[in-house]
Amino acid sequence: MAAQIKPGPSSNHDKFNSNRKPVLLAKLEGCSDHVNKAILIPETDGVISVSSDRSVRVWLKRDSGQYWPSICKYLPSPAVDLLYRPTTRQLFVGQENGTISEFILEEDFNCMESVGDILAHYGRITGMIWTEISIDGVLEQWILSTSRDKRFQYHNAKTTNPIGPPFVCTSWCTSLEYDLESAHVFVGDYAGNISMLNIKAEGLQLVTTLTGHTACIDKLVWDSSSRRLFSAGHDRLIIVWDIGGGQGTAYELHGHTNRVTSLAFVSAKNLLISAGEDSIVIFWDLNADRKETPPWAESDNCETCSRPFLWNITGIFERKQFGSRQHHCRSCGRALCDKCSQDKSTIPSMGFELPVRVCKFCSNNIDHTPMAIFHDAKHSVTSITMDLLRKCVLTIGQDRVIKIWDVSTLI
Ligand SMILES: [Zn+2]
Ligand SMILES: [Zn+2]
Fold first, then answer.
1. Which ligand is nearest to the CA of 325?
2. How far is the CA of 216 from the centre of ligand 1 (A)?
3. Average of per-residue pLDDT across 3-7
4. Which of 69, 94, 97, 372 could bridge 77 with an S-S bond, Cβ 3.0-4.6 Å?
5. 381-405: average pLDDT
6. Where in the chain is the domain with CATH 2.130.10.10?
7. How confident is the model at residue 69 (pLDDT cuts 50, 70, 90)?
8. What's the 372 CA to ligand 2 centre distance in angstroms?
């Protein structure tokens, strides 16, 4: 067999060659187990991180330019999630055992005081949101939370008492988002469903279930200004749900080759940032005109050459042709035989930034200009968080390294 030089997986090189690139500012290392979440402390050169080694760390930038821990506190169980309120310096840490621990950070970030625990769940905390709600004219502070115990629950942050019965999913609850204005909660689960709940005075009401993902939902992000929900999951897919915009559309974004673990949204720029286990960070321009993917046509014969499909016994017999497997053009949705759908192409307007199967006709009529910028983060990313004021993104890798990037050229 003759030797061949095949183009490598980086044949989409042009996507990576943008002049607008994140610039690595700092690396934080030292955790002895997975880092589960980390955030940049607003208006301070500091980072808070939680890790499976049970530690809560506060890192401050030193004169050397490097970040070193000023606080390292160990909890009874692995620390898996964190929620920080800059105005009050309240820090809530979700644990593997289902407890949410509250702390207050000192002004100089060199010390933190324990406030108390909410015994919220029986399993790993997967999402926490702090909110203030007026009940009969009295302001109440609530902590909304999800867990691998399959429950969404809300507690009074002061008394630590649960409010109302929980919402119980059929699988692990894996992500949480909340629309303050309409008091709607979005709960993503391990099966790929998103339950939309309404918090009412009389309790929780299931409004609808959003189905579109086929595997665990790792991240939900809500944008209140455009009333859109962004979801990402193990099926490598990102979906943009138009919840309140009146269009009822759901766009798909395909660009990752492995699980999408995290999302961040820059509302002012209409820019979605996604990251995943393929080590790639993608900046999606949502100002670009996007179309929904078409439904797949059902047919017994190829819609171009009329070749019968495998199950069309009558057609195979009458035309004396072998049956073909059925494929679909991702651009027009027509049912086609393999021969009539051999082209591979990106379809940026439908969110396909990686080549997919298309028919000959569509192949010649697609605008291939990318609508996303790709960046190699050089480590499999488990979480990203955004600091809009400083125009920085923080990524956490499976290598336990936290990286801070300047993304000012992109946002
Ligand atoms: Zn055909
Ligand atoms: Zn087509």
1. 1
2. 36
3. 40
4. 97
5. 93
6. 20-295+375-406
7. very high
8. 22
User: Residue 97: which residues within 8 A CB-CB, separation 6 or more?
Assistant: 76, 77
**Ligand with the closest atom to the CA of 350:** 2
Q: Where in the chain are all domains bearing CATH 3.30.40.10?
A: 297-370
pLDDT above 50 (res 396): yes
Neighbours of 86 (CB within 10 A): 12
Residue 247 has pLDDT above 80, yes or no: no
* Residues around the ion ligand 2 (C-beta < 5 A): 329, 331-332, 359, 362
Compute the distance between CA of residue 71 and CA of residue 359 in angstroms, rounded to an integer.
Answer: 59
- Cα(303) to ligand 2 centroid in Å equals 10
What type of residue sits at position 17?
A: N
Q: Look up the CATH architecture of domain 297-370.
A: 2-Layer Sandwich (3.30)
Distance of alpha carbon 279 from alpha carbon 218, whole angstroms = 16
Interval between CA 312 and ligand 1 midpoint (Å): 14
Query: How far does the centroid of ligand 1 lie from the alpha carbon of residue 330, in Å?
Result: 15
The CA distances from residue 210 to 164, 193, 218, 234, in Å, are 24, 6, 15, 16
Q: How many Å lie between the centroid of ligand 1 and the Cα of residue 327?
A: 10
Note the pLDDT tens digit of each residue in 11-55. Answer: 444 567 677 889 999 999 988 899 999 999 999 999 999 999 999
pLDDT at residue 1 tops 50: no
**Ligand 1: distance of its center to the CA of 301 in Å?**
8
Looking at domain 20-295+375-406, its CATH architecture is 7 Propeller (2.130)
